[in-house]
Amino acid sequence: MSVDDKGKKELPPLKVAIAGLGTVGVGVLRVLTEQADLISERAGRPIQVVAVSARNAQADRGVDLAPFRWFDDATVMAREADADVVVELIGGAEGVARKVCETALDSGRHVVTANKALLAHHVISLAEKAEVAGLGLFYEAAVAGGIPIIKALREGLAANRVRSVKGILNGTCNYILTTMRETGREFSDVLIEAQELGYAEADPSFDIDGVDAAHKIALLASLAFGEQVDFDSIVIQGIRHVTALDITFATELGYRVKLIAHTERFDGCVETRVEPVLVPVSAPLSHVEGVYNAVLVEGDLVGTSLYVGRGAGAGPTASSVVADLIDIARGRFTPVFGVPSGDLSASVLCENSAPDRGERYYVRLMVTDRPGVFADIAAALRDEAVSMESIIQHGRNPGETVALVMVLHDTPEDAVTRAVRRIGSLHEIVEPPRVMRIGRF
Amino acid sequence: MSVDDKGKKELPPLKVAIAGLGTVGVGVLRVLTEQADLISERAGRPIQVVAVSARNAQADRGVDLAPFRWFDDATVMAREADADVVVELIGGAEGVARKVCETALDSGRHVVTANKALLAHHVISLAEKAEVAGLGLFYEAAVAGGIPIIKALREGLAANRVRSVKGILNGTCNYILTTMRETGREFSDVLIEAQELGYAEADPSFDIDGVDAAHKIALLASLAFGEQVDFDSIVIQGIRHVTALDITFATELGYRVKLIAHTERFDGCVETRVEPVLVPVSAPLSHVEGVYNAVLVEGDLVGTSLYVGRGAGAGPTASSVVADLIDIARGRFTPVFGVPSGDLSASVLCENSAPDRGERYYVRLMVTDRPGVFADIAAALRDEAVSMESIIQHGRNPGETVALVMVLHDTPEDAVTRAVRRIGSLHEIVEPPRVMRIGRF
């Protein structure tokens, strides 16, 4: 008997309703239409859009919406459309997006979403709804668009106890930091350009203040550790205060500045934070530039593995949404966090950031160049038992301001904080000291 | 109703027989035993080893085999053990390994294998057997141990038409090339060290001549393009001829030498090859060092994405084998190539390596330093319409041998071949010219 002799059972199409027809929604629609043959081959059956919903029925989106039932109200669509799956591409942690996902699950439909804000705040209740109803809740597109990192963590690395996940998860920040390094320009200048190019929003704070990256690392942490990570407990610092001068010094020291979202499990506690970090140029992560994202996973079996790809845009995001639809079409289901959500334990926050672990820090001071000032700085470090690994000062400028950069090593964070506070209060220190962690990758 | 109220249906354990108890087999056994709780949570039910087989029943492997039924003959085990899955970790393209996999499928058992040689030669017939019987054939561990690249290509990137896959797929070669660069030592010297450290086999040719990487890229090509790639059509060149001098020049020019396995689809044909390539230091791939592997996938939706991790060893390989077992336990099945094997078309080889595409090449000549020799070289290039981008010669040494390195650009391969052949026949050229492609990453 050969494969051809075997009667193939024709499966019915998987019927899909799409809520939200922005760039990504239209991208998904295009892929499902234009690559229909490829997709139905890989999905084992056709994937057919049956209904769509968006705020404006009249907008010209460059695609023919006539074949699909139109809904003015996405929540009504989630309840009433003849669909197996609702794809939520509206965005936002509350409001319509949340209602659409809840209604879809309550109405017996699988959900595929790209909405990291919604998930960061409400994934547990959504996961419970999905599990009770025996439905899928897929969100590959919510983190690092073109990188199948949810699948990698949830399935590919499922045999591992994950120790840490570190990522470049916000393309806007990475574009700005890369351009600052390449051109020597200041943050505010590059931000304006990024806004003109469409790489940054008119209100950029969600990206540049690290909130978006925090949403994503919260999800990855829950997935990696099988624990509920409280979003509000994440220490978040964005890139507004990174200066061209810091990037120049980092380069001189052999590092690149990246906004790193980081979650790590220690004995009995988890530490999660988002902050600019110096990444050594010897690490592949440092060469992830521009709008690319990257995720570094450390597992007990695989050791370190790294995933790099575009973080956003219609193509990469549609790729992930459609991959989720193919999983559903093939019947490849996985609990939201890889394990039943009832098995998730509440994450215990580390009291003190890495209390027993010596780390390395970059500290930049703007100092009035006057005899004796360095003795005062050195005394503050000595008194807090902070070790200095190296120091850079270029040229002298008696009586004027000069930049002084120190690399501190083998130092607990609280000792650095105390020493830097004391140094910052010296009369000769004319700006608040800038401190960045130096990452181990 | 909450999740807890829902009666959980207890699934029976997934029963596994392991053929081959070398480093990897023992690794798998350890993981399944020591991480049993974690794995049964992620798999939705216990994964239980019921039988094992190896050549020597008496060997001390540091694990207790008493709980498992022992088979002297792995093929008998594949037929008779009370197992749902047979894990084949014996190795080799023919013989016992092949028999075990065929027998398992014929006996209604799923197969998980790490055997790239077997798959490179026989995956089509095995896939047909599996499909006819409705069984799974999983092989995540066969390519790039710690990187879930099979899952990424087969599921995560399933919405994409893949244009190319390029990889560092052999850890032995990458270790040798990295060490050569770091220490300035010659190939043969570093190979001996790698053998002493256990990073290279006593007979290293399978690795260093590129055959192992070719096995892996053949599999990835079939998976990426949905085509049968004929293993014997792959152009294979290993790293024996890479010298310390070449690596020094590559470094000077801003490149690292990597053994790259490459498959690319052009209009109507596929080109697949394994060869040492110069990778620009600006590419993250160039920073994949030592025993790490990497795979770069270019898809029409995602653009470029990169996957990096350890290529071999008990931990990474066991991670992939157990991930496959978890897929089976959860009922997450996928056709061997993502599409039914009957839908695979035979791959059409490109007649001529990238005939219309200009590429860049590194050419090193050992030249007797004599007036007029450069004019002869330049004439050969001119006559074949080959453009030179740059040239390096350090110092002069009249009458003696000097190294001369040229970067050729925008040049079809056959023109380079003709020009280099002509140059190589000049009286002043005292060694065969060394040519390496400069990759675009």
From TrEMBL, chains A, B:
Binding site for NADPH: K116
Any one Gene Ontology BP term: threonine biosynthetic process
Superkingdom of origin: Bacteria
Record-linked CDD domains: ACT_HSDH-Hom
GO molecular function: homoserine dehydrogenase activity; NADP binding
Pathway annotation: Amino-acid biosynthesis; L-methionine biosynthesis via de novo pathway; L-homoserine from L-aspartate: step 3/3; Amino-acid biosynthesis; L-threonine biosynthesis; L-threonine from L-aspartate: step 3/5
Catalytic activity, EC: 1.1.1.3
Alphabetically ordered keywords of this record: Amino-acid biosynthesis, Methionine biosynthesis, NADP, Oxidoreductase, Threonine biosynthesis
Stored Gene3D superfamilies: 3.30.70.260, Dihydrodipicolinate Reductase, domain 2, NAD(P)-binding Rossmann-like Domain
Active-site residues, as the UniProt record annotates them: K216 (proton donor)
InterPro entries named among the record's database cross-references: ACT-like_dom_sf, ACT_dom, Asp/hSer_DH_NAD-bd, HDH, HDH_cat, HDH_CS, NAD(P)-bd_dom_sf
Family from the record: Belongs to the homoserine dehydrogenase family.
PANTHER family: HOMOSERINE DEHYDROGENASE
Protein name: Homoserine dehydrogenase
Lineage start: Bacteria, Pseudomonadati, Pseudomonadota, Alphaproteobacteria, Rhodospirillales
